[in-house]
Amino acid sequence: xxTLKESGPGMLQPSQTLxxxxxxxGTSLSTSNMGLSWLRQPSGKGLEWLASIWNNDNYYNPxxxxxxxxxxxxxxxxxxxxxxxxxxxxxxxxxCAWDYPASFAYWGQGTLVTVSS
Amino acid sequence: DIQMTQSPSVLSASxxxxxxxxxxxxxxxxxxxxxxxxxxxxxxKLLIYNTNNLQTGIPSRFSGSGSGTDYTLTISSxxxxxxxxxxxxxxxxxxxxxxxxxxxxK
Lengths: 117, 106
Description:
Number of helices of chain B: 0
Oligomer: heterodimer
Radius of gyration of chain A: 13 Å
Strand content of chain A: over 45%
Largest sheet of chain A: 7 strands, mixed
Number of strands of chain B: 11
Radius of gyration of chain B: 13 Å
Order of helices and strands of chain A: EEEEEEEEEEE
């Protein structure tokens, strides 16, 4: 069974860089055709896809591409997301999700990130 | 970007009802359409992928259909535990979600 858990700072100030970690078990990114994605959801609102990592390829939401970096540490079963120039409008619950056998097939519990001065 | 429009935004139904939720894409998405269920305070859960494939562990009362730009999620007999918000999602191109349909008990 695939399980995922997000970890992050909880709160940060405007203009700072957000660093998130997704730690997963029950699967491996070293297997071909496996991928993991990051998404977010402001409180009471809809879902937004941020970035995905598949094999050695990275994919980004075009509207946020300049601010995002996704990477993996395969030996640790972790995927990292860096999000620069954070603003209050970026306040949301951030999720990681496993992309097999379908997009966002398994989700972590989410981590709330609040951007405030 | 492909826009996904869900209707209705809120749906009230009774236990045992057959319920249909709709999702319309702004262009052909070639059946690359998933449905997710999100209960209050929880992470979303994948129900259906690629229009009509039931995810492992999901009850058979959930089904999906559609093609081109128009897709539906059907619950054959509504149960109390089905109260949730349902999101459609396309991955024919850069991934986008619909705004959701909130399903309530009447």
